[in-house]
Amino acid sequence: MTTQQDSVYRLARVMANLVVLSMKIRNAHWNVTGPDFHSMHAFFETLYEVIERDVDEVAERIRALGSPAPGHLGELIATATLKERPGSLEASGVLLNELLADYETLVVGLRHDIRASGDLDDPTTTDLLTGLLAQFEKAVWTIRSHQVSSASGSVPQRESDSCKSHSCCGG
C-alpha cells in the first residue's frame, strides 16, 4: 500500500466514523427528553454542526489525495468502527454517556492515525487529524461537564448558559 493509499484508507475510516457520530448526535438532538431538554437540544446541535464541517474537511482531503470520497451510506457504515443507535426517546444522561464513549473511541483512533500518518511522512493529513484530535478532546471535556450538570439536576435556564454562547466544541 502506498503512502497515499494508506492515508486515504485512514481518512475514509475517520470520515465514516464522523458520519455515524453525526447521525447519533442528531438522534440525541431529536430524541432527548427531560427537564434539561432545551439546553441539551441546543448542546447536541452545536456538536453535530461541528462534525458536519469535519466530514467536509476529511472528504476534501481524500479528494486532494486523488481518491473519491466515500459517498454511499452502506459503505460508510461498513467502514465505521462506531455503531449506529436506533432512534428512541432517552434522558440526556443516557445519550451523553453513549456520545462520550464514541468521542473517546475517536480520540484513541485519531492518536493511532496521527502516529501512522507521521510515519508515512504525510504532514497535511497529520495536521488535519491533529486538529480533529484537539477538537474531540475538548468535546470530551464539555460532554463530561454536561454529565455533571445533568446528574446534579442543574439545568441552564438562559441561552447564555448554553454551549452556543462560547467556543466549546467549535461553537
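Second entry:
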Amino acid sequence: MRQIKLLYVALGLAGTLLIACAADTSADSASEADALARKLCDAWSSHDARVVDEVFAEQGVYEDVAAGRTIEGRQAIKGFLNQNFAAIPDFKVDVTKIFSTGGMVACEWVMSGTQTGDFPGLPATGKSFTVRGASIAKVQDGTIVHWTDYYDMSTLLHQLGVVPNSAPKEQ
C-alpha cells in the first residue's frame, strides 16, 4: 500500500514538474507579449499598418470573431487595417486592461470612430460608435502568431444606425 502511495506522489510531482517546464511564465515573456499587444493597439489608433510587419509572424492570423472573418498573412492583415482606416478615419483603440502569461496576452479595450467611408456591403453612415471589446493573442518567438478580437457586433450596428434599436412592444 505504501508503494502505491509513493507512486502517486511521484507521478504527481512529475506531472507538476512537466507542467511547470512546459509553460513559459517568465517575466520577460509576459512583458514582451504585453509590448507587442500595446504596439498593435497603438497602430490601430495611429493608423500605421506597417507595424504589422514588426509584430505579426509572416503567416500570422488575425481573427475578427464578431465579423466572422479570418485573415492570414502580414500583407492581408495590413490590407484589412488600411480598409478600416479608410472607412473610419478617426478610428481609435484605448486599452483599458492588459495581462499575459505563458506566451498568451489578453487585453480589454474600447474602440471608437465615425464611419465616413464604405465597407464591403455597408455604405458610409456618417455615424459615430464606441464599443468595448477584448483580444486574445498567442505570441511565439517574439511575434504574434494568432490574434483574436471579440466585440458586440449588434451594439456596433445599432450605433451606426444599420440595425434599428428595438424596444419591447407594449400589449
